[in-house]
Amino acid sequence: MLDRADTPRRKLVEVRGLKMYFPVTAGVLRRKVGDVKALDDISFDIYEGETLGLVGESGCGKSTCGRVILRLYDPTAGSIRIDGVDIGAADAQTLRPLRPAMQMVFQDPQASLNPRMTVAGIIGEPLDEHTQMSKAEKLDRIYELMDAVGLNRNFANRYPHEFSGGQRQRIGIARALALNPKFIVCDEPIAALDVSIQAQVVNLLEDLQDRLGLTYLFISHDLSMVRHIADRVAVMYLGRIAELAPRDALYDRPMHPYTQALLSAVPEPDPEIETARKRIILTGDVPSPANPPKGCNFCTRCPRVMDICQSVKPALREIEPGRFVACHLYETTAAAGSTGAPEDHERNQQGATQ
Ligand SMILES: Nc1ncnc2c1ncn2[C@@H]1O[C@H](COP(=O)(O)OP(=O)(O)OP(=O)(O)O)[C@@H](O)[C@H]1O
Ligand SMILES: [Mg+2]
């Protein structure tokens, strides 16, 4: 986690107007009948050395967001700049030399590690693919990585099934670090682990971030863990960003009705606060991303819904320095000059990321 006192403000990741639509097909001819709008026009930045938390209910598009940014999917629209290089439309050949700088740690280390490869083979695989290291150099690097993630070097020739979940995740982290990445997408990296192990893995990720200057997109639906690890937090709902703010501002004073509802469900360790506070129970189901509402995506479940919400999608606007909310309740407090007109949308989205 970066030291807020001397916050570096260099943007490492810049996402603008990103859309990822998955085609929905039907019939034996697999005719396209629509799109699942997994990401529908999202823009944000991640600063070098920070952890941006990405939260939201299951299916809101968190994993898709992480995968598109790493160009594991081809985006439908929008741009992605990593360290100043636009990779949004880059082809496989252009992407290849850029891949080492951006890596992913997956949710389920069991499923993401090849069961037929040894630890050394798994950690060394990216080195084979992207470097010309000799065998000896490679083994040195593998040992160095095993040390970095707290794995005993004697385990190098063992197979994934011989390890506990936490140790397997350490292998996955070592593999992600092999090529000295700058940016790592951690997609629910602790969700499959025992609670007792979760803190160890999170501490390891934080420690590595400090030592190696890493930048994280930390995807999770564990809001307490995100509060612990993130510098800023983006809240997603049905393929769009509802709110993006510095961590303490978001948790202490959530502004979007969806963020308010989401946070009201987080257990509070202080019993006095726990009894005093109001839990907001949302009614209704999340609409299908293949058929989102015409207006605000949250309008079908929002306790504070207004007429305008049914017909106009609110843009993500900066309503306080560094704090962005996509909600008609705050239109009048939005940045001066915002009229809500379509031509303002792009400007606001740009502003949302300054
Ligand atoms: N490869 C794919 N093909 C078609 N639809 C997909 C694909 N991947 C994701 N989707 C759809 O996109 C939407 C967003 O999915 P995504 O996996 O990004 O959500 P998520 O927020 O990561 O959810 P979870 O918390 O359950 O991991 C869902 O409706 C999902 O069904
Ligand atoms: Mg996911």
UniProtKB/TrEMBL annotation:
<keyword id="KW-0813">Transport</keyword>
<keyword id="KW-0547">Nucleotide-binding</keyword>
<dbReference type="GO" id="GO:0005524">
    <property type="term" value="F:ATP binding"/>
</dbReference>
<feature type="domain" description="ABC transporter">
    <location>
        <begin position="15"/>
        <end position="263"/>
    </location>
</feature>
<keyword id="KW-0067">ATP-binding</keyword>
<dbReference type="Pfam" id="PF00005">
    <property type="entry name" value="ABC_tran"/>
</dbReference>
<dbReference type="InterPro" id="IPR017871">
    <property type="entry name" value="ABC_transporter-like_CS"/>
</dbReference>
<dbReference type="InterPro" id="IPR003439">
    <property type="entry name" value="ABC_transporter-like_ATP-bd"/>
</dbReference>
<feature type="region of interest" description="Disordered">
    <location>
        <begin position="335"/>
        <end position="354"/>
    </location>
</feature>
<comment type="similarity">
    <text>Belongs to the ABC transporter superfamily.</text>
</comment>
<protein>
    <submittedName>
        <fullName>ABC transporter ATP-binding protein</fullName>
    </submittedName>
</protein>
<dbReference type="InterPro" id="IPR003593">
    <property type="entry name" value="AAA+_ATPase"/>
</dbReference>
<dbReference type="InterPro" id="IPR027417">
    <property type="entry name" value="P-loop_NTPase"/>
</dbReference>
<dbReference type="InterPro" id="IPR013563">
    <property type="entry name" value="Oligopep_ABC_C"/>
</dbReference>
<dbReference type="InterPro" id="IPR050319">
    <property type="entry name" value="ABC_transp_ATP-bind"/>
</dbReference>
<dbReference type="Pfam" id="PF08352">
    <property type="entry name" value="oligo_HPY"/>
</dbReference>
